[in-house]
Each structure stands twice: as structure tokens, then as C-alpha cells.
Automatic annotation (TrEMBL):
Major facilitator superfamily (MFS) profile domain span: 5-411
Keywords: Membrane, Transmembrane, Transmembrane helix, Transport
Name assigned to this protein: Major facilitator superfamily (MFS) profile domain-containing protein
Location of the protein in the cell: Endomembrane system
InterPro entries noted in UniProt: Atg22-like (IPR024671), ATG22/LtaA_families (IPR050495), MFS_dom (IPR020846), MFS_trans_sf (IPR036259)
Pfam short name (any one): ATG22
PROSITE patterns: MFS
GO molecular function annotations of the record: transmembrane transporter activity
Transmembrane segments: 7-28, 40-61, 73-95, 101-124, 145-166, 172-193, 226-244, 264-285, 292-308, 314-334, 354-373, 385-403
Annotated membrane topology: Multi-pass membrane protein
Top-rank taxon: Bacteria
GO cellular component: endomembrane system
Length: 415
């Protein structure tokens, strides 16, 4: 086990989570609340990203499995993501009336960010032995949540107006610092991470042939034991969790009229418990098994979503939100380790493209349902957001039902 690689791998997740939380919290509100873009069109950004991802990610993932260049692809995608974020930052600061351009480059940055995880997640197989996949996945996920805490702490004074940077005041102040910090901290991964030598490398690959074989390769992938069922289950339960996560700042604003400073403090509390959840669940999943751990986590979401949607007391809502953080961390720590255990080694990048794709298409149906509920029931006022959260429980239940049929061999679990 290469501890340096684990450090660089974790630091990379720490780095990109800084810009993710800042854009997630403030860009969504900059668009919907400050610029008047509807909830529906904000959610359609993620739907478009999903469609783009479908036609590109599996191809490049398959190529990486054959030519061993996943690290090169990761590096280039990271640089392009940084440049797109840089453009968004300058538009919001100096050309804030150019909302369409801001949306366009945010869309591209989101697409590239998601693309990077095709290669990033697949590296778990190489940096840790099988019996430690759960805990190392948890360490990486804890790095993610810790980075989000740091991102919020750094940008809170800018968003609240306590510190003025440059350009348009308010939420737009946060994007440029987060973007620069992300790129600086991601450099060690780009420069110093050493991927183990690949067993076989094919130098010349035809993109045309890759597209021709797309469907054939996909069918071969899901023929692997339980792979198809796991991806389908992941699609459904992740649908609910990602949709709630993306809309959470707007939910707090519309339902409880929470000021930005309180939102940031609450988000920090959630992220701290997320880091704890990632570390704890990763360790537990290596002890009691990946599937059992995941079933417990998903069962908790089935209880939590209806509670979040029905509670009217703000202080009880705060307690539930902090508890929700624990399960955020646990969910993605365990699912990544599960995917690593199920996916054939020779198809890791291709497999993780569909893992990420399942996550992306989770932002197709979920946001569509959320957007329709909040648009069609506009006369219900803030209650429409409560209904949307409760409806997300249905997707989790479907995911649990499918996951029950997934079996993971004993050799993929800790003894």
C-alpha cells in the first residue's frame, strides 16, 4: 500500500470539494435567487450534463483501460475544469448580466468535474489492498467533506460581506478564491501521483471503433456478477440523495428563510458529521460487509427524508440536518468500495464511467421530479419543497429493493 499515493489521492478529493461546496451553495442561489432563474432550469443544467456524459465518458474510460493513460486523462480534465471555473468566476464578478454565459461555463465545469471521477474512483483498486478498500474509500471521502468545510470557512466572510474582494459584491465574491485554491491543492496529484505499471497497454486505439463497440462492452460489463443490479440500485437511491443535496440551499431559503451565514454554519456542521460518517462506515464495511453496511445506510435515508420534509420546528430540523451529514459521508464511502469490489479489474475505468453515469442520470429523473413538483405546486408556497423532499423517499425504497438481490463474494469482504 503506497501511503504517498493515498495522500495525493485524498488531497485531490479535498481540493476539488472546495470549489464544489462553494459553487453548490452560492452559485445555485446566485442563479435562482439573485438572477431570477427558475428552479426547473437550474436543475436542467445537471440533466444536460448527464446526456453529455452518456456519449463521452464510457468511451474515454474504455480507452483508458486499454492504453493505461487514465492519469493523463485525469490531469487534462482537471486543468480544463479549472479554466471553466475561472471563466465563471470572472463572469459573475465583472459581467453579472451575462447569465447565459455563466450557466454555460458552469455546465462545462460540472461536466468535467464529474468526468474526472471516472478515473479518480478507479484508482482505489491500485492504491489499497482489497481488504482495506472500505476504509481507504472512507478516508478519501472524509477528505472530500473536510475540503468542503475549509471551502465554506474561507468564503463565508466574502459571502456575508464582511470582506470585499473585487467586482460584484455578495455571493459572486466566493467563486474566484475557491477556484484558485482548488487548482493549487490539486497540483500534487497531477504532478507526483505514481500509477502502478499497467500489465498491458495498447498504443493505437480507434475512437470510431470504441463507439461501435460501446453497446457490446456495456453488455459484457453488466454480465459481470451483480454489476447490472448494483448500478441500477445506485441509480435510484443516489437519485434521491443527489437531488436533495443540490437543492438543499434553496430548500433552506424557501422553507425556513435561512440567511447565508446560518446556511454556511449549518453546512459546516453537516460536513463535519459527513467526514465522521465516511471514516466510520468505511471501517465498519470492512468488518461486517459492504452490502450489509449499505442496506443500513439506505434504510436510514428512508426514515430521514420524510422527517426532513414534515418537521416545522427549525431546531429539530437542524438536528436532523447534522444527522443527515453522517449518512451523506457513509453512502458514498461504501458505494465506491462496493463498486471497486464488483467491477472486473480490466474494466475499471469503463465500469466507473457507468458508476458516475448512474450518478449523473440520477440528476435526470430526480431533478426533473423536483423541478416539476416545485413548479406545478407553486400555489402551495414553501410546502411544495417539503413535498419534493418526501417524494425522494420513493427512489431510495426502489434502490433498496433492487440492492437486496445483489451478492458480493466473501473474497470481496474483510474476513
Amino acid at each position: 500500500m503506497n501511503k504517498k499515493n493515498i495522500f495525493f489521492w485524498t488531497l485531490y478529493d479535498f481540493a476539488n470539494s472546495i470549489f464544489v461546496i462553494v459553487f453548490f451553495l452560492y452559485f445555485s442561489q446566485w442563479l435562482v435567487i439573485d438572477k431570477g432563474v427558475s428552479d426547473f432550469w437550474f436543475n436542467m443544467i445537471f440533466t444536460i450534463v448527464s446526456i453529455m456524459f452518456l456519449f463521452t465518458a464510457p468511451i474515454l474510460g474504455s480507452m483508458a483501460d486499454k492504453n493505461g493513460k487514465q492519469q493523463d486523462y485525469l490531469n487534462w480534465i482537471t486543468v480544463l475544469c479549472f479554466l471553466c471555473l475561472l471563466v465563471v468566476s470572472f463572469i459573475t464578478l465583472f459581467l453579472s448580466n451575462q447569465v447565459f454565459l455563466a450557466i454555460l461555463f458552469f455546465l462545462l465545469a460540472n461536466y468535467l468535474y464529474q468526468f474526472s471521477f471516472v478515473f479518480y474512483n478507479a484508482l482505489l483498486h491500485y492504491i489499497a489492498p482489497r481488504e482495506k478498500w472500505g476504509r481507504i474509500s472512507g478516508v478519501g471521502q472524509a477528505g472530500n467533506w473536510s475540503g468542503q468545510v475549509v471551502g465554506l470557512l474561507i468564503t463565508l466572510p466574502l459571502a456575508s460581506g464582511a470582506v470585499y474582494f473585487v467586482g460584484e459584491a455578495g455571493r459572486a465574491q466566493t467563486f474566484l478564491p475557491a477556484t484558485i485554491i482548488f487548482f493549487v491543492l490539486s497540483l500534487p496529484m497531477l504532478l507526483f501521483f505514481k500509477l502502478p505499471k499497467q500489465e498491458k497497454v495498447i498504443d493505437k486505439i480507434s475512437i470510431k471503433d470504441e463507439y461501435k463497440n460501446y453497446w457490446k462492452q456495456f453488455k459484457e460489463l453488466i454480465k459481470s456478477p451483480n454489476m447490472g443490479l448494483f448500478l441500477l440500485a445506485y441509480f435510484f437511491f443516489n437519485d434521491a440523495i443527489i437531488t436533495v443535496q443540490n437543492n438543499f440551499p434553496i430548500y433552506m431559503q424557501r422553507v425556513f428563510d435561512v440567511p447565508d451565514k446560518t446556511k454556511a454554519i449549518l453546512m459546516i456542521s453537516i460536513l463535519v458529521t459527513s467526514a465522521i460518517g465516511a471514516l466510520f462506515s468505511g471501517w465498519v464495511s470492512d468488518k461486517i460487509g459492504l452490502k450489509k453496511s449499505l442496506m443500513i445506510v439506505l434504510g436510514s435515508w428512508v426514515v430521514l427524508f420524510p422527517l426532513l420534509g414534515s418537521i416545522s420546528n427549525f431546531y429539530i430540523f437542524l438536528v436532523l440536518c447534522i444527522l443527515m451529514g453522517f449518512f451523506f459521508g457513509a453512502t458514498w464511502a461504501v458505494t465506491r468500495a462496493t463498486m471497486t469490489a464488483l467491477c472486473p479489474k480490466e474494466k475499471l475505468n469503463f465500469g466507473f464511467s457507468f458508476y458516475t453515469l448512474a450518478e449523473r442520470f440520477s440528476t435526470l429523473i430526480g431533478p426533473l421530479a423536483w423541478g416539476l413538483i416545485t413548479s406545478l405546486f407553486i400555489s402551495f408556497g414553501s410546502t411544495r419543497y417539503r413535498i419534493a423532499v418526501i417524494i425522494m423517499t420513493v427512489f431510495v425504497i426502489i434502490g433498496i429493493f433492487i440492492l437486496r438481490k445483489v451478492e458480493i463474494k466473501k473474497m470481496d469482504l474483510a474476513s
